[in-house]
Amino acid sequence: MATFKYSNRVPADGTDAVGAILAAAADPSIISFAGGLPAPELFPVEAMKKAAEAAFDEHGQQVMQYGDARGVAAMRELVTKIVKEHENIDAKDENICMTSGSEQILELAAKALVNPGDTVLVEDPTYLCAVDAFKSYGANLVGVPTDEDGLIPAELEKTVQAHPEAKFLYVIPTFQNPTGRTMPAERRKQVAELASKYDFLVFEDNPYGDIRFEGEHVDAIKSYDKTDNVVYMGTFSKILSPGFRLGYFVADPGFVKKFTVLKQTADLGTDNLVQWCTVKFYEQNDVNEHVKQISDLYGQRKKLMEEGMKKYFPEGVTYTHPEGGMFLWVTVPGVEDTTELFETCLKQKVAFVPGEPFYAAKPEPGHLRLNYSNMKPDQIEEGLKRLGKALEEAIAA
Ligand code: PMP
Question: Which residues form a coiled coil (predicted)?
Fold first, then answer.
């Protein structure tokens, strides 16, 4: 048997707690709120077939050839339009880089900026895979406190003063993963001003921003950035297809160049076919209408979640009320270990993701993340009934 002498970046056996949770939740007899998948019934399969046909008919050789590591020019042009229309971000072509999903930005940003032991600031709690990507390059994560309006600028300022060495801040201001919370405009402006004042970098991750089913749109932090301190990250995963693996960022041209060098060694460039399919899809379809259908469906599902939680959850259990996106965040008073609660829930044939792994350092007890985007109405009703029962047992214990 060969011996694989793994690098320090590879997690030790048995440390993939979330993988174990998702595997346990995959049992078909379990109703799982643990996933994070878009509703597949809204994937525009037929329309995308037509877009693919046009891509091959009109650009076949380019589709099949190596391309610019920064992406297809027509795709970058489309992104400059999207970020202006949706987020009021002024971008030129030199600011844009297409990527293999937005996940790749997290990985390559960490590779570009983090040496072992470097400090990275994150909202507490934050996106799990970002935590894993930053840690795999040896980052020392420092959490910035949040409240029901997301990241708290005054706390950020204190943290930045205490950690002037920090390489960057990572933040998800809209329909955050895991909490579903959204930062108001004033806070976004303050974050951009602090980034300029203290000259720190901000990675603003916005995979869910277009999926709003309630309330008013809030422009990106990047729209307030006058000094190129903010890197804005987007993706087509939640509005078109996560299987396409198509993301992008908008940043200072110098950073785009450095990043592109790393991107070349990672994959020589993002898949041309998905970029051309996306360009053609936008030409041939009313994408805003398509996104509205997604938002309407998720809005209906979130409403069912709120009705079910009200009906079945014991007194004292609280939850966020997201105005968009795919997740909500539940707080169970008196429960110290939600991983233990997870075991109780598995016996009731219902699953969620425990809150602990979403924290940078010391986890706050008693939180769990629930997904509703890929849950049918009968699963929501029955799943919350089971979860309510398990929560009652856990609180009583
Ligand atoms: N950032 C956040 C906050 C996410 O939730 C996700 C997907 N779960 C991603 C980035 C990565 O998405 P993708 O690579 O599909 O663009």
Answer: none
Report the pLDDT averaged over residues 9-22: 79
**CA dihedral sign, ordered 222, 156, 166, 358:** negative
Cα(58) to ligand 1 centroid in Å equals 31
CA of 242 relative to ligand 1 center, distance in Å: 9
DSSP per-residue string spanning 195-211: HHHHT-EEEEE-SSTT-
Region 55-82: what's the mean pLDDT?
Answer: 98
Q: Is 127 in the pocket of ligand 1 (CB under 6 A)?
A: yes
What's the pTM value of the predicted model, to 2 decimals? 0.96
Q: Which atom of ligand 1 is nearest to the CA of 172?
A: 3
Cα–Cα distances in angstroms (integers) from residue 66 to residues 6, 96, 258, 268, 273, in the given order: 31, 19, 20, 8, 11
Q: What is the mean pLDDT of the chain?
A: 95
189 pLDDT exceeds 80?
yes
What distance separates the 2 farthest-apart alpha carbons in the chain? 65
Measured in angstroms, how far is the CA atom of residue 316 from the centroid of ligand 1?
Answer: 32
Are 206 and 230 in contact by the 8 Å Cβ rule? The answer is no
ipTM (interface predicted TM): 0.99
Nearest-CA neighbor of 147 among 125, 166, 169?
125
The answer to whether 355 touches 279, Cβ cutoff 8 Å, is: no
**Residue 101 Cβ < 6 Å to ligand 1:** yes
Which ligand 1 atom sits closest to the C-alpha of 245? 15
Give just the sign of the alpha carbon dihedral 132, 14, 29, 341.
negative
Average pLDDT over residues 363-376: 93
Query: Around Cβ 313, how many Cβ atoms within 10 Å?
Result: 18
Phi/psi at 135 (5° precision): -65, -30
- Nearest C-alpha to atom 9 of ligand 1 is from which residue? 103
Asked if 126 and 170 count as a contact pair (C-beta separation under 8 A), the reply is yes
